[in-house]
């Protein structure tokens, strides 16, 4: 499972989620859902904007994590 790992990038750059939210011009609800991995998709335009603002590549934004099999069954 892929998860977005923006908080790590923000910490490395000494920036806050509020700073990123203001720079991306996303609605707060969409931004919050994206950052908290509560979304099933991401628009290319939003991905591009995150990469532009954070000066990174899409590979830097995501981390692959093992999915908990117990949660998947329930």
What does this entry look like structurally?
By secondary structure, this protein is mainly alpha-helical. It has a single domain (2-57), classed as 434 Repressor (Amino-terminal Domain) (Orthogonal Bundle). It is 59% helix and 8% strand. It is built from six helices and two strands. It has a two-stranded antiparallel sheet. It is globular, with a radius of gyration of 13 Å. The relative contact order is 0.22. The mean pLDDT is 91.
Shape: globular
Radius of gyration, in Å, reads 13 Å
- Per DSSP E runs of 2 or more residues, the count of β-strands stands at 2
Tell me the strand order in the biggest sheet: 1-2
Bin the strand percentage: 5-15%
The third-level CATH topology is: 434 Repressor (Amino-terminal Domain)
- Uncertain residue segments: none
Round the mean pLDDT to the nearest integer and report it. 91
Number of domains: 1
Specify the structural class. Answer: mainly alpha
The CATH fourth-level homologous superfamily: lambda repressor-like DNA-binding domains
What level of helicity do the residues show? Answer: 55-70%
CATH class: Mainly Alpha
- What order do the SSEs take from the amino end to the carboxyl end, as H and E? EHHHHHEH
How many helices? Answer: 6
Major beta-sheet overview: 2 strands, antiparallel
CATH architecture: Orthogonal Bundle
- Euclidean distance between termini CA atoms: 17 Å
